[in-house]
Amino acid sequence: MAGERRSKMMEETRGKLISAARHVFAEKGYAATSMDDLTAMVGLTRGALYHNFGDKRGLLLAVVNQIDGEMAAHAAAVGSRADNGWDALMAEGVAYIEMALKPEVQRIVLLDGPAVLGDPSQWPSQSNCLQATVRKVEDLMAQGIIKPIDAEAAARLLSGAALNAALWIAANDHPQDVLKKAVEAFRCLAEGMLAVRN
User: Fold this and answer.
1) Which SUPFAM superfamilies match (predicted)?
2) Burial class (CB in 10 A: 0-12, 13-18, 19+), 137
3) What's the pTM value of the predicted model, to 2 decimals?
């Protein structure tokens, strides 16, 4: 019982810290966020932060993983409404790119994340998305919709194109203008993989 209670308390502590960090990182940015202010905000000590995440960078990684997971779930939900596998794959890519317009996604995942955590393609959350894309590409190849090319290479290029489009949007002073160009180019590049073009 005591172990179960302790585990629940640790989970609640992690949840509080992630929620507070998510709010403050989005508002102030990673560099301007004080760990003392953040922990005081939720009535915890810096020791709780270090125990659960190691350091501020570890907390950012947890926040990025949470948001990135939500982004993947949203993209999958959008894709699930498509009429076929190809349209679903395109809808997911476009949905991911469009999320770059959200201030929280821009600041935490697309600007601070790469600056602090390094190459997004190496993040655990991105690896999960990549594996899901590989499976979709393999399925589309099996149906003869995509040319017989290496599935991982195709998935990496599709994922990379969507991610780089989102990074471009987040870093631009006119993100709405860039979005239209990015989505058009993403679709055009992806269509080169089709076995028979429409």
Assistant:
1) Homeodomain-like (SSF46689)
2) buried
3) 0.88
CA gyration radius for the chain?
A: 19
Burial 18-27 (b: 16+ CB within 10 A, else e): bebbbebbbe
Q: Note down pLDDT in tens along the chain; length 198 residues.
A: 667 777 788 888 899 999 999 999 999 999 999 998 888 889 988 888 898 999 999 999 999 999 999 999 999 999 999 999 999 999 999 999 999 999 999 999 999 999 999 998 888 888 888 899 999 999 999 999 999 999 999 999 999 999 999 999 999 999 999 999 999 999 999 999 999 765
Closest to 33 in 3D by CA, of 112, 111, 109, 101: 112
Sign of CA dihedral 107, 111, 114, 119: positive
